[in-house]
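To assess whether ligand presence alters the predicted conformation, the chain was also submitted together with D-malate. Input:
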Amino acid sequence: QIDVCLTPELLHLHTVENTIVVVADVFRATSCMVTAFAYGVNSIIPVATIEECRDWQERGYLAAAERNAQRVDGFELDNSPFTYMDEQIRGANVAMTTTNGTLAITKSRSAVKVLVGSFLNLDAIARFLQSERYDVMVLCAGWKGRVNMEDTLFAGALVDRLKDSYAMAEDSAIMSWRLYCQGKDNLPSYLANSSHIRRLQRLGIQKDITYCLQHDLYDVVPVLRGNALVSMQV
Ligand code: MLT
């Protein structure tokens, strides 16, 4: 079956063991990660705190740190997918901390597998899961414990792609799916006025929004191996 956890605050109510968890932070952490792998990054270590990220930076990793949608001083990379469309990224090992996305990944460690999902790699994730025997749970990163629309819509999109192979576990899966069915024909306008879009727009970040809502751009499936995300061949 496929389950949806609408925010990491509710994770204790869901079962992660024996489950493949797909973490989604559409704006923008998981869209960044997917883009980074599409542009040839070797690995990404997701960490919860700025201090841990600095430790990896001191060991020679490229480091990305974001809080409240802005780059933290002293780090090379910010949290825009466009930052990763660069030759210096090819083959690099990156350490990354973000307000919600990397935190959600670090909270999922006891799952059978942790995958990184976004609209950009929706089809690759769906194809990979078609051939798996485990239950699936989408973990929406949300915003500081709150539910958000964009991650819920991604969950609904994955439910939609998998609905012939996986039963919807409970109402959170049905709700996400219905929301996606309602909004899918024009996600940018369906999401207008949502919280993180307003937050990003206040910071003048518009092109990331349009970019992150594109479906099926990249054939990559990032998976957590030990403490690092790597790109799995599908
Ligand atoms: C996060 O992890 O909270 C987000 O990616 C924030 C952002 O848009 O930079």
